[in-house]
Write a structure and sequence with these properties.
This protein has 13 helices and 14 strands. By secondary structure, it is of the alpha/beta class. The protein starts with a helix and ends with a strand.
């Protein structure tokens, strides 16, 4: 009993201590490492540094980033989220080329990078980012003009990269094929949220990204319908041009009332080969539905945060024979009131049909899973293989 009363954390195995430390943030981890030598060694365990989020830590300077990289970040890092100094009174440089090179060498397993309020105008190109990145998120950042342009590597650099990779594999005792080039951009998912400097030229330069399959554009005000038309995947005599490997596209405009609207989703009217999933949000839903009928390969359509009428959805989905899933998220459906004569008869018929299915007599209540039964029945006739999903949707009756 006395031994139990005098027991301390020293009696716990290191695996349990590491599990306890995993609930701490970055600041708390660094402070915990100052307690003793054993805790300092535990804090530097790479299992605690797989996902690092520094967005809540305001005022992180380049000096702090160097300290973190040299003392804590290593081979265990998978996801990194940083907050820049774009809205800070300090200002100054945030990400440098030397720090990004050191990040690439010390963290070879980094897959996701998220930047918030970062000024990237001091970087020449996105090729300075780690080549192992698969997900890149930019929120409220500033970009230079040719940031997304990918320059093909020279034969000398390709040979040097191949020889370096072969040397590393031999040193580790691994055998197998050596990749021809390791300097290409391997990003598969790109998220741009409230990036005012992103223009049509940036969008067109993404065509050189050979692995880009998911693109999310939210509140990107300088992208126009013409820029989206030029970036669409189209078949020509020389093959597919544009973003030919893109499978998922999201276009959303959730700006304040009175903000300039480019209606970029109208650019979908030229058709987009290979595009299987489309998400429209805010003020881009109306123009996007007018053009979505030209997307013959579309399988999933998601509409969110908008006002819709039943006829808008039916006109757009009439030709989408390959559509398999249609989602409505936080959509305000506007329903016109029915006339007393015909409308009353139609309500009775609908009540009988729904009552025959449910059998509980509660037809006057709005079903959250089916707020617009007439829309469901019409789409079931047009697209029998399509699944409908409603999330936080409301129905309002208008006099128009």
């Amino acid at each position: 009993m006395a031994d139990f009363r005098t027991s301390t954390l020293d009696y716990f195995p290191e695996n349990i201590l590491i599990d306890i430390l995993s609930y701490l943030g970055v600041r708390e981890l660094i402070r915990t490492g100052r307690v003793c030598k054993r805790w300092r060694r535990l804090v530097k365990d790479q299992r605690l540094w797989r996902a690092v989020d520094l967005t809540a830590w305001k005022g992180v300077t380049s000096r702090m980033l160097w300290v973190l990289l040299r003392q804590y970040l290593g081979t265990g890092l998978r996801c990194l989220r940083l907050r820049g100094l774009l809205l800070s009174a300090r200002g100054g440089a945030f990400l440098s080329e030397s720090w990004l090179k050191a990040l690439s060498s010390r963290c070879p397993r980094l897959r996701s990078l998220s930047l918030l309020h970062a000024d990237l105008r001091g970087l020449r190109s996105c090729q300075l980012l780690p080549t192992t990145l698969q997900v890149l998120e930019l929120r409220g950042c500033e970009l230079p003009q040719g940031f997304f342009t990918q320059t093909p590597p020279s034969p000398e650099n390709q040979a040097g990269a191949a020889s370096t990779a072969a040397t590393q594999q031999q040193g580790r005792g691994q055998t197998g094929k050596v990749p021809a080039s390791t300097s290409g951009i391997a990003i598969e998912m790109l998220v741009l949220d409230n990036v005012p400097s992103f223009t049509d030229l940036h969008l067109q330069s993404l065509a050189s990204w050979l692995k880009l399959s998911r693109l999310e554009l939210r509140n990107v005000l300088r992208v126009t319908a013409e820029g989206l038309r030029r970036s669409a995947a189209q078949e020509t005599d020389s093959g597919l041009n544009g973003l030919s490997r893109l499978k998922y596209l999201e276009i959303g405009h959730f700006g304040r009332p009175g903000a300039q609207l480019q209606m970029a989703s109208l650019g979908l009217g030229v058709g987009w080969l290979g595009l299987e999933e489309l998400s429209l949000g805010g003020k881009e839903v109306g123009p996007g539905l007018l053009s979505a009928s030209r997307l013959r390969d579309l399988k999933r359509l998601r509409l969110r945060c908008c006002k819709l009428r039943e006829m808008q959805v039916l006109r757009s989905c009439r030709t989408l024979r390959e559509l398999r899933r249609l989602e409505f998220c936080e959509v305000f459906f506007q329903v016109c009131p029915k006339t007393p004569e015909r409308g009353g008869e139609r309500q009775v018929e609908e009540g009988r049909e729904d009552g025959a299915d449910s059998g509980d007599g509660s037809n006057d209540k709005l079903d959250e899973n089916d707020p617009v039964p007439s829309l469901r029945r019409s789409l079931a006739a047009l697209l029998p293989q399509c699944t409908l999903l409603f999330t936080n949707c409301t129905v309002t009756i208008t006099s128009d």
